Amino acid sequence: MAAIYSLYIINKSGGLIFYKDYGSKGRMDTNDSLRVASLWHSMHAISQQLSPTLGCSGIELLEADTFDLHCFQSLTGTKFFVVCEPGTQHMEALLKVVYELYTDYVLKNPFYEMEMPIRCELFDINLTQAIQKDRVALLGR
Amino acid sequence: MIGVGKIKQYANVLDKPLSKGKQEVSLSAFAFLFSELVQYNQTQVDNIAELERRLEDAGYAVGARVLELLCHRDKGNRRETRLLGILSFVHSTVWKVLFGKVADSLEKGTEHEDEYMISEKELLVNKFISIPKDMGTFNCGAFVAGIVRGVLDSAGFPAVVTAHFVPMEGQQRPRTTILIKFAEEVLRREASTYNRIVKR
Amino acid sequence: MAPAAPRTGEAIFASVERVNAELFTLTYGAIVRQLLTDLEEVEEVNKQLDQMGYNIGIRLIDEFLAKSNVSRCVDFKETAEVIAKVGFKMFLGVTASVTNWDAEGTCCSIVLEDNPLVDFVELPDTCQGLYYCNILSGVVRGALEMVSMKTEVTWIRDMLRGDDAYELQVKLLKQVPEEYPYKDDE
């Protein structure tokens, strides 16, 4: 069964502002997740420079043996990426949905400070619903 | 010249025809504006009680104006003189105009004679707002409580109005209750004048 | 995957949840009133409204991008068109147009056909220096800054001040895309 392992949101400076682990594989502690996010942020930026074509917007899909990584970067520099089972379908659409949930339940929250870690109950609730609706998440907890 | 003639100019704003109230903006536009209202007021206060008061005060002015607008446009300048009348007006007409629907419920308080409650599963103003744990029971619905107080006060029914989260069994999110506590003079007036004329 | 086609302002406005403009108008009025009480000086209120608009703009831009499917604009002319035709429409339901381009294509005017902020409003004599709609100039400035464009946005014509239209001037000062390595990397 196709599954989502984890979801990350990075602000435009490379700081991790949201991390959700959906499976029992690759469980990371806070420090590891911060480090990984920062590394991805740099790799993403480097990929834009490495690209032989002009106007490249960075890595969108990384396929490895044991996982796929789909990444979406908004024009404002915020990155949303998901680590999932190889071959999982509709991940770009899911990332788009997560982006819209972010614009609603994070950015419209007066108690959310820009660029800071996301701690918005409504975002969590709606994200869980979105992931469950897709029926591709393996909720290992 | 572009723009000239598109919006008709009036020498006096009072000459301009009153809008029919059908124009709309996106919910997002309102949500961003409201979020900024809350954020601005947070910078002006030291504690949550003050924040609540400032939001209520902001709502009060809206309420007073809404009453004038609706009385003139929708009620043909008829003035509500009965308690249940004004409550019904708030619960149905005011709510419909401002929030697009009538309020979920209107109830009389069971413990106190002077208390009434208007409840909503989720207030429109709270739709995208998650209250941080360290803010306790704070509710941005204080703005709506202020609107209700503004309407009631301007209509001659002074009251203390507050917004509260009420946890609901089996529901993830609490509902919001706008608690209205009428001033003594209102109840006295209700009891004296109207019970003589119409026995309920 | 091919990117989704850009949507028109009307299409987006029709598809999103909407509220009565009067709630919006009256709430904005409450904000302006609060500022006048707190700050007293009209010039300070103008600045604060612009700042509040900026705070909104830096958040609103992501929703704009998410819903409009607009891709990176080729030039500032395209940017201005998209703000006028899609931005103002999808949030405020307002039709706007772009005019008065300068020779370099870095400065233009956006003229609003309608303005829900100003219903019922008349500036009293004590507030003649007030730019009542200054929040809008801040919104445009904040939104553009988040997509790497530094701009100056000012009101050229304001009907509350006696002009015959609402006209915003948008001037592109600098286009600064952030490139790796970023300045704050060690």
Description:
Chain C: Keywords: Endoplasmic reticulum, ER-Golgi transport, Golgi apparatus, Transport. Chain C: One of its GO terms (biological process) is Golgi vesicle transport. Chain C: May play a role in vesicular transport from endoplasmic reticulum to Golgi. Chain C: Belongs to the TRAPP small subunits family. BET3 subfamily. Chain C: It is found in: Endoplasmic reticulum; Golgi apparatus, cis-Golgi network. Chain B: Belongs to the TRAPP small subunits family. BET3 subfamily. The complex is a heterotrimer of chains A (141), B (200) and C (186). In chain A, α2 runs antiparallel to α3. The C terminus of chain A is likely disordered. The longest helix of chain A has 21 residues. Chain A starts with a strand and ends in a 7-residue tail after the last helix. Chain A has a single domain, classed as Beta-Lactamase, CATH 3.30.450.70. In chain A, a hairpin with a 4-residue loop joins β3 and β4. Chain A is an alpha+beta fold and 141 residues long. The radius of gyration of chain A is 15 Å and the shape is globular. A five-stranded antiparallel beta sheet of chain A has the order 2-1-5-4-3. Chain B is an alpha+beta fold and 200 residues long. Chain B has a single domain, classed as Muramoyl-pentapeptide Carboxypeptidase, domain 2 (2-Layer Sandwich), CATH 3.30.1380. Chain B is built from five helices and five strands. In chain B, a hairpin with an 8-residue loop joins β4 and β5. In chain B, α1 crosses α2. The N terminus of chain B is likely disordered. Chain C is globular. In chain C, β4 and β5 form a beta hairpin. Chain C contains five helices and five strands, in the order αβαααββαββ. The longest helix of chain C is centred in the first third of the chain and has 27 residues. In chain C, α3 crosses α5. With 186 residues, chain C is α+β, with helices and mostly antiparallel strands. The relative contact order of chain C is 0.16. Helix content of chain C is 45%, strand content 17%. Classes of the chains: A alpha+beta (141), B alpha+beta (200), C alpha+beta (186). The interface between B and C is large, with 44 and 50 residues.
